[in-house]
Amino acid sequence: ERRLRGSDAAARYEAARLSAELGGSLARKALLELASEVHAPDACRLGALYALRGPTLSQQEKAVILRTAVETGKPLVRRAALAALSGNTDHEDAPSLSLLLENGDPITRVYAARLLAESGHGPGVDFFAELLEHQDYLVRQEACDALGRYDTPDAGALLEKALARETNASAARAARLALGFHRSGPTEDGRERFFRDILAKGDDDE
Fold it and tell me: Which residue, 25, 49, 95, 181, shows the most beta carbons closer than 10 Å to its own?
C-alpha cells in the first residue's frame, strides 16, 4: 500500500502487479486511487486496473472505474477500465457506456458494446458490421468476441461472413470461438460444455 501511494513509478507498477497476482485483495483503496489518478503514468494505472478487475467490485469501486473510463483521454487506460468492469455492469450503467459507443477508438467502442450486451442493453448487431471489416485485426478479433455474446440469428450470420473472409490467424480463431459460443445457446450449461469440448480435443490453438 505504501508503494502504491509512493512517487516511484516503477515501484508503484510492481506493487500493482503483485496485488493482481495475489487476487487483487490487497490495498483495494490504494489501487482504486491509483487507477483514477489522472497524472499517474499510464502503466501504473493499467496495473491497478488489472488488479481490480473481476466479478467482486463493490458499487463504489465500479462507479470510480466507470467514471475513469468515461473521463480519461487515454485510450489504453479507458480500455483497461472497461475490461475491469466485465461482469459487473447493469442497466444503471447503460447511459454512461452508451456514450462510449461513439468514441474515436474502435476497441473502446467494442468493449463498451460488450459490457452493454452483458447487461442486456447491447447495440444491434449492425453496430459490428463495420468493425468486423476494420483494417486492424485486433479490432476484428474483439468485435467477433463481443458479437458471439448475442443470441440472434443475425449475429451468427455476421460471424459466419467474418470467418469466411478472415485472413489473420488470430482473428479467425476468435471468429471460430465466437461462432461456436453463439451456437452453444444462451444457457450457462451449453456454453460451459462448448469450452469443455474444445479443451478435451487438445489438437488446436483454440
Answer: 49
